[in-house]
Design brief:
Radius of gyration: 18 Å
Bound molecules: zinc ion
Shape: rod-shaped
Strand order of the largest sheet: 1-2
Structural class: mainly alpha
Helix content: 40-55%
Number of domains: 1
Strand content: 5-15%
Length: about 55
C-alpha cells in the first residue's frame, strides 16, 4: 500500500481507496480509463500488422 496525491485537493490518499475521502474525487474512473487505453494500444498493434499484411499480399 502506498499514498497517491489527489489531483483535486492535493491530499495524500491510499492508492487502494476508490475515491478521495476529502473531496470525493473518483480514482476508479481514471484507473479504468488507463487500463482501457493500454488494452486499446495492445490490440491496435496486431491489428495494424494484419492490415499491412493484407495491403502487401
Ligand atoms: Zn481529494
Amino acid at each position: 500500500m502506498s499514498l497517491i496525491k489527489c489531483p483535486e485537493c492535493n491530499k495524500m490518499v491510499s492508492n487502494t481507496a476508490n475515491e478521495c475521502p476529502k473531496c470525493g474525487y473518483d480514482f476508479q474512473v481514471k484507473r479504468d480509463l488507463n487500463s482501457f487505453l493500454i488494452y486499446l494500444l495492445f490490440w491496435s498493434i496486431p491489428g495494424i500488422l494484419v492490415i499491412l499484411m493484407m495491403l502487401f499480399s
